[in-house]
Amino acid sequence: MRTLIAIANPDLRKLVISERAIAALTEVSEIDWVPLGESYTSEDLARDIPAYDACITSWRSPKFTQEVLEKAVRLKFIGHAAGTVIPIVDESVFQKPVTIVNANSALSKSTAEGTVMMMMLAAWNCMPYIKSLQEGKWSQSSQEAVMGLSGTTVGLIGYGEISSEVIRLLAPYQMKILLHSRYCTEAAAAELGVQLCGLDELLQQSDIISLHSTLTSSSSGILGARELSIIRDGAVLINTARAPLIDEQALIDELRKGRFTAALDVFYQEPLGKDHELLRLSNVICTPHIAGFNRHWRSQQVEMVVRDLLRLLKGEPLHGEITLDKYRRLTPR
């Protein structure tokens, strides 16, 4: 068996490929690497792919075009050490005898941790206190209190690996958790210890609202002017998912009123321009799309897809397999 690791960027290789992953892969396969630090295109992949049974990819890896797939006569496995596979394959790959997996579980755990971090920052009103201290003001009074996390009601929009992990991480805080999802069943909600509800109910009752939907034609703009207007005063709105889930101008218009706080990790245009109004509003916390940056979980990504390759060879169930149905529900990028 031969495996091609199609990750050319040296920093990315260092980040997502562990020694343990390579050791495990070496036990079952010969390994070849694309040239380090050089551009490696779909044309290059089409030239090389006939010799390989498996290919491991990540961000900025070349796409499996029709030409690549036609020449991939031995290929049985694509392991994408990242999240969505849409940048590297289109639906035609499901017409081939190729198993596709990704390492979304690692990114989900990182993003969930990042989400809870943003909840903490906003619910504890950290940024104004930090700024005040930097200005030489000791803002502390026995009359002051912050919302915090404990005892609050949290509303999660979207059900999947990230929101499930957020629920697990929030367990110690004695919260009421509401969930709005078309995909979560009553039985699954009961097992998670959360309450299913409609979107309006969630927005009106939650102290903290966090988005975890994938971006599709049906979820784009799920929070528009009407929805934002019914968020309760003093609430916190978190978005670590995708910016277009919220109507940006409607969000800015509502935030100008100062009714609630937003903590945003994703934006319509990235990088976010230094003069963007979201950076100037005092009730907004902005971070540069870093929720997936946890070093530990990033280092697990190739290891995760290698473990699925080993399961495939043994005929065992896979953990990160992408079916056509899952593919159609993925965020484009």
Description:
The chain is of the alpha/beta class and 333 residues long. 35% of the residues lie in helices and 14% in strands. It is built from 14 helices and twelve strands. It has helices spanning 10-16, 19-26, 42-48, 66-71, 104-123, 126-134, 161-170, 186-192, 199-205, 225-229, 248-255, 295-299, 301-314, 324-327, and strands spanning 2-5, 30-33, 54-57, 77-80, 99-102, 153-157, 176-180, 195-196, 208-211, 236-239, 261-264, 284-286. It has a seven-stranded parallel beta sheet, sandwiched between helices. Strands 2-1-3-4-5 form a five-stranded parallel beta sheet, with helices on one face. Helix 8 links the parallel strand 7 (176-180) and strand 8. Helix 5 (104-123) packs across helix 7 (161-170). The longest helix has 20 residues, at 104-123. The two termini are 31 Å apart.
How does the SSE layout of this entry go?
Blueprint: E1 2-5, H1 10-16, H2 19-26, E2 30-33, H3 42-48, E3 54-57, H4 66-71, E4 77-80, E5 99-102, H5 104-123, H6 126-134, E6 153-157, H7 161-170, E7 176-180, H8 186-192, E8 195-196, H9 199-205, E9 208-211, H10 225-229, E10 236-239, H11 248-255, E11 261-264, E12 284-286, H12 295-299, H13 301-314, H14 324-327
Parallel strand pairs: 1-2, 1-3, 3-4, 4-5, 6-7, 6-9, 7-8, 9-10, 10-11, 11-12
Helix pairs in contact: 2-13, 5-7
